[in-house]
Amino acid sequence: MRTALVIGTGLIGTSAALALSARGVTVHLADHDPEQARTAAALGAGTEDAPDGPVDLAVVAAPPALVADVLADAMARGAARGYIDVASVKGGPRRELEARGLDLSAYIGTHPMSGREKSGPLAATADLFEGRPWVLTPTRDTDTEVLNLALELVSHCRAVPVVMDADAHDRAVALVSHMPHLVSSMVAARLEHAEEAAVRLCGQGIRDVTRIAASDPRMWIDILSANPGPVADLLTDVAADLEETVRALRALQSADEDKRREGGTGIAEVLRRGNAGQVRVPGKHGSAPRAYETVAVLIDDQPGQLARIFADAGRAGVNVEDVRIEHATGQQAGLVQLMVEPRAAAALTAALTELGWSIRQ
């Protein structure tokens, strides 16, 4: 691949353009908002100049509802040898293109499984996709050259290619992305009119659950409008679980011992199923989750504290597998939770204690 055209210079389009430009590909940028394309170009993502002729690959980074229109226009102009889109829904756009009678041998639907709560070109980074799955949904009609161009793009972005059927992809993202986002928003909505005294008690748990609720509502309306059926099916199942859970909790309020016992059994079953599902979430490097031990360290909110603690862990010969930070409400301090292999926990605790760090059990 020597040339590319990125149509749509938001977070995903600009990030892909930055990665391609960094690897020597000449990238042309286009957007319905010229100012957004100008910003992406200023960041080094490419040039606003139109290409002299067909490019090797056109990357359509438009909302799902607009993908078919943008792709059809680009194909009619003969803008590229191959065409892909990066929308988060795959089945609908493909069916729209088929209904228009277009030759889809030069097209493949794709979806990089990466993003941020922020949107727009200023939020873009060349390493946004690094190590992340990038779904490809070829059909029997997809030209081999186009598939190879798509794989080359994924390689330039240092992502991990995953081949799936388009409709299977849409059901999967409904489960792992779209439905959780709505549930996160529903939980966060409980905080909108909550008493300030209650909100001040927020800890890491509520932060984890509501983090993705900070995303742009306009973007999510576009996404959910393109994949409503699978998301609604999943929420129906969640609603049934909620009803059962409410009944179990009400039973725990009963004066009848048998009903209380039944309620406890119902809650235990919900928690058990949650445990069974959570352990299936891939862990580090996509492997099966591993049990790490946590070494919790109290740190002051001062420059260089995190760098020091990681450096001290390194000098102790301990690899930090994961890290979480729990911020203390109203205080200039926080609790850094270092996840390490169980056999390394005691050595790390001893080394950090000797260096003056405050360890919390």
UniProtKB/TrEMBL annotation:
Residue stretches making up the ACT domain: 294-361
Listed InterPro entries: 6-PGluconate_DH-like_C_sf (IPR008927), ACT-like_dom_sf (IPR045865), ACT_dom (IPR002912), NAD(P)-bd_dom_sf (IPR036291), PDH_C (IPR046825), PDH_N (IPR046826), Preph/Arog_dehydrog (IPR050812), Prephen_DH (IPR003099)
GO MF assignments: prephenate dehydrogenase (NAD+) activity
Cleavable signal peptide: 1-19
Pfam families in the record: PDH_C (PF20463), PDH_N (PF02153)
Enzyme class per UniProt: oxidoreductase
Entry's EC annotation: 1.3.1.12
Keywords: Amino-acid biosynthesis, Aromatic amino acid biosynthesis, NAD, Oxidoreductase, Signal, Tyrosine biosynthesis
Catalytic activity field: prephenate + NAD(+) = 3-(4-hydroxyphenyl)pyruvate + CO2 + NADH
Pathway info: Amino-acid biosynthesis; L-tyrosine biosynthesis; (4-hydroxyphenyl)pyruvate from prephenate (NAD(+) route): step 1/1
Coiled coil: none
Membrane-spanning residues: none
Prephenate/arogenate dehydrogenase domain sequence ranges: 2-283
Similarity section: Belongs to the prephenate/arogenate dehydrogenase family.
Protein name: Prephenate dehydrogenase
